[in-house]
Amino acid sequence: MSKKYSTTTTLIIVESPAKCKKIEEYLGPGYKCLASFGHLRELTSLDKINIKEDFKPTFTVINNALKKKQIELLRKEIKNADDVILATDDDREGEAISFHIQQLFHLPENTKRIVFNEITEGALKRAIQTPRTIDMNIVYAQQARQILDLLVGFKITPVLWKFITSNSENSLSAGRCQTPALRLIYDNQREIESADNKTVYNTMGFFTNMNLPFELNHQIEKEDDLIDFLDGTVDFTHVYNCSHPTKTMKSQPEPFSTSKLQQAASNELHFSPKETMKLCQSLYEAGYITYMRTDSKKYSVDFIETTKAYILKNYENKYINENIDQLACSKEEDTNSQLQITSQEKPEKKKSNSSKSQDMIQGAHEAIRPTKISLKDLPEKVNYREKKMYKLIWENTLESCMSPAIYNTVKADIQAYHNFVFNYTSELINFPGWKIVKNKFSTDNKEYQYLQTIKKNSHIKYNKIFSKATIKNMKQHYTEARLVHLLEEKGIGRPSTFSMLVEKIQERGYVKKGDITGNNIMVKDFELNDTGDIFEVEVKREFGNEKNKLILQPLGKIVIEFLDKHFADILNYDFTREMEDDLDKISKGLLISQDLCKKCNDKLDNTIDELKKKDIGKFDIKIDDKHSYTICKYGPVIKCVEKVDGKKMTTYKALKKDLDIDLNRLENGGYELEDLLASSSSTMTTSTPTNVNNSVLGEYEGKDVILKKGKFGLYISWGDSSKTLKQFGNRPIESITFEEVKPLLEEGSNMVREITKDISIRKSKKGDYVFFKTSKMKKPKFFDLKKCEEDYKTCDIDKIKCWLKETYNIF
């Protein structure tokens, strides 16, 4: 039976609908919670920024069916409510959304604004008891960020379109933080290409009755020097020594900030930063973890006390980190979300005197942690990947509050020829400390005991000496986790934007995540046996093989080199970091936003004015007198310019599919034309190409999708159906993919909208319905859509997922 709010009603407005049910449940009768579904107003173009009047922005209501419907619902509920509380997320975007809600619905300036770091009953009630008002300094910082992003994007991106290409979707773009992120990948690629990759030898000596591998403390670079070392080793008197046991500590991990969590999830769970944030959003909204966008490494005082009690109950007092109180937020930080700050009427016209309060607000978030340390495992209804993410957070949180692990360590060394030394270290756990959480340690180490039984200064014979050829200091491509770490280290973006930046450079086609095939190189390994014989073994060894790395694409190289040449002063690391620091200052009332916008805009205009004076042609790399490599609106192609019957004719040919082209080699004339052209490539002109073989693109609903070329142009056929591809124009046939034609196939099917690979909305004679079938299910399940109040054909896909989860417990 539904509740009726006939008495005094307080309306709480949040961003996400997934929070509403839980908030109403915790606060009880008298409270109603609705969502804005993110921003309600937007800044759409440069025309909406009055540059002459202190960069004053003009916001417009987002014009789509979902937003219109939600705005009307909010308007109605605000009118009926006795009190309104704004409870959007505790970050710049959330503060701005509260401001837009206040403006759009003409709420008073002293409308209550609350923030909470976790969706628990205690946190919500504390927030309700200590509201504040909208912090306009934070709003101004968010608006400045929007304006800066528009200035950079809308002024530089058209330059890319002009000098490189403008495709059907105008996917080329520059961004204030996006471009420096791409620059990190580019700089690393240049280091990889310029590395000398010297071959060196790592040498292991096998000694003792246990045949333990001692590592030589020196890499030998030349084969002759290695032979000399091995020859000298035959008659050398090796002297053994072992240290007394010493205690070494292995520190517990730090609490999770956003970037540290993204790195750990990438390295340990192989989750992308985007998926990590998506899973954490679900866990946060369900009340399982604290807010996931933070750079804090502190916990609340209450949580520290609860965790102490948990450790004491489940382990012993000695497992509590003796410095655990240093992990606790200060009293001011711990209560900052309850601070009430009254906005000045014109806070931007003078520097704020409440910088201390502002610092508190900016540091409001804790590190990412479980809301209840006692909850080790999530309920069965939670999906598998969310459980893995929660386990990672729970374990790290508990470990960070525990004592260091203590090991007894012995270091054995053996004097070697040429004053080199063979080393071997062995550890025995003394006190597990934080490592007891995962219980992955051994209390038995025979080597540790054995090394101490060998007499010191005794002569010891080798069993075998083995020298393995390898590449010295071989540079590797970045993982997504490594890129996130560098973004944080260089101050490019903020925790809330790291995953978006990593995703954006991939979406644009500048970078691709994939595997790098290594090079097979013939090398020599050397082995000295116990009778003094040296054996030389030639082996083919693969170097440079990498998995799931970020790989710079030709388009990314072209774009970043153009931008670096003409916009280096604006898109370099230092200027980007300075702007981020200045945005922080604005949020604290220490800087006026117009000053930052003017500095950036003046720099942009001056750079673009200088560029207009230069004679810069369209991007083009010459291959021979007729052919060149260029970018057309559908991607890289070979352009051919020649005279036919006295007339100049331009034609295009497709590149080999999946060709990993090296632009440096191309620019230096390292490719022949046949190295680049697809084997079946035919000339593409303004007339329709002919005589190209059929090509199977993929499978759709159990039938092959075949790309064909007929009298009237390209078309696809599958089963008894066919459809023209006139919208693809004269695009090279080899470059057309299944993903691009799939939407055309779905137009004629019963598919209304794909939600995930397992869930879709489909149509039937009786109306639309939800189709659900995983690879493990023998039969699909069908769900009714009649109770869905959303416009499921056009609304945000996350909104549908949320409704399906609440209504049918899918996901």
UniProtKB/TrEMBL annotation:
GO biological process, one term: DNA topological change
Sorted UniProt keywords: DNA-binding, Isomerase, Topoisomerase
EC number: 5.6.2.1
Reaction catalysis annotation: ATP-independent breakage of single-stranded DNA, followed by passage and rejoining
GO molecular function annotations of the record: DNA binding; DNA topoisomerase type I (single strand cut, ATP-independent) activity
InterPro entries (UniProt xref): Topo_IA (IPR000380), Topo_IA_2 (IPR003601), Topo_IA_AS (IPR023406), Topo_IA_cen (IPR013497), Topo_IA_cen_sub1 (IPR013824), Topo_IA_cen_sub2 (IPR013825), Topo_IA_cen_sub3 (IPR013826), Topo_IA_core_domain (IPR023405)
Domain Toprim: 9-119
Broad EC category: isomerase
Protein name: DNA topoisomerase
